[in-house]
C-alpha cells in the first residue's frame, strides 16, 4: 500500500482520484518523450563501469594512462546506451544513483532515467512485470539483454509542486496496479485517511482469504 498511494496536501478532498499504473515520488533524472509501447530495464548498480573490481588496487603510471582509462569508461558507457537503444529500451529504472556520464548518454540516445528507487519500489515493479534487474558489467558486459518490461506509458506528473513519474506497465499477472492520489488540506488529514484505507484493504484481504480457504 505505501507504494500504491500518494498524499497531496493543499488540495480539496474532492481532488482525490485513482490513476492506472504506479506513481514514483521523484522526478526524472533524464526525460525523453517516447510514443507507443516501449521497453524498460531495471538495474541496481551504477552503469558507469569501475576501473577495477572491489578490493583490487588500480595503479596508473602517468596522467596519460589515467585519461586513457577515463576514455575507456566513457566508450563502454556509450556502447551500453547504444545497446539499450537497439533493444528498444527507452526507460531505465535504477535503485542506484547514476553518474553524469550515464545521464548524458541516456539523453543522447533517447533513454529516460529514473534513479534512487527504493527496494520496495523495485520489488513491486519486478512483481508486476516478472522482470529481474539487469547486471550490465562484470565478466560479460555484452551478454544479451533479455529481461525488459513492457511499458504502456511513461510521463511526468505534477502533484501541486511535487514532480513525479507516472508509469503504466503491462502486467504479467492478475494484479493490475493503480495508484491512489489522496488529497486533503494538510498532511495530518491525508495520513488519517491513508491509515483508514489501509486497514480497510487489510480487512478485505482477510475476508477473501477466509472465503478461499
TrEMBL record:
State the source organism's domain of life.
Answer: Eukaryota
Q: InterPro entries under this entry? A: BBS10, GroEL-like_apical_dom_sf
Q: Which biological process terms from the Gene Ontology are attached to this UniProt entry? A: chaperone-mediated protein complex assembly
Its name, as the record gives it, is: BBS10 protein
Amino acid at each position: 500500500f505505501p507504494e500504491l498511494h500518494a498524499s497531496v496536501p493543499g488540495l480539496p478532498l474532492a481532488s482525490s482520484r485513482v490513476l492506472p499504473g504506479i506513481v514514483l515520488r521523484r522526478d526524472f533524472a533524464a526525460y525523453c518523450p517516447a510514443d507507443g509501447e516501449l521497453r524498460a530495464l531495471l538495474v541496481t548498480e551504477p552503469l558507469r563501469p569501475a576501473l577495477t573490481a572491489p578490493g583490487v588496487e588500480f595503479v596508473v603510471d602517468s596522467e596519460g594512462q589515467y585519461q586513457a582509462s577515463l576514455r575507456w569508461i566513457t566508450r563502454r558507457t556509450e556502447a551500453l546506451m547504444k545497446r539499450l537503444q537497439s533493444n528498444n529500451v527507452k526507460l531505465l529504472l535504477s535503485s542506484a544513483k547514476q553518474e553524469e556520464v550515464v545521464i548524458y548518454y541516456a539523453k543522447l540516445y533517447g533513454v529516460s532515467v529514473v534513479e534512487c528507487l527504493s527496494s520496495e519500489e523495485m520489488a513491486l515493479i519486478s512483481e508486476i512485470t516478472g522482470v529481474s534487474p539487469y547486471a550490465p558489467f562484470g565478466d560479460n558486459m555484452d551478454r544479451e539483454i533479455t529481461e525488459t518490461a513492457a511499458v504502456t506509458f511513461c510521463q511526468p506528473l505534477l502533484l501541486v509542486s511535487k514532480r513525479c513519474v507516472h508509469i503504466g506497465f503491462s502486467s504479467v499477472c492478475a494484479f493490475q496496479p493503480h495508484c491512489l492520489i489522496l488529497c486533503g488540506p494538510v498532511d495530518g488529514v491525508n495520513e488519517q485517511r491513508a491509515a483508514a484505507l489501509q486497514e480497510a484493504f487489510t480487512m478485505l484481504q482477510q475476508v477473501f482469504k477466509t472465503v478461499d480457504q
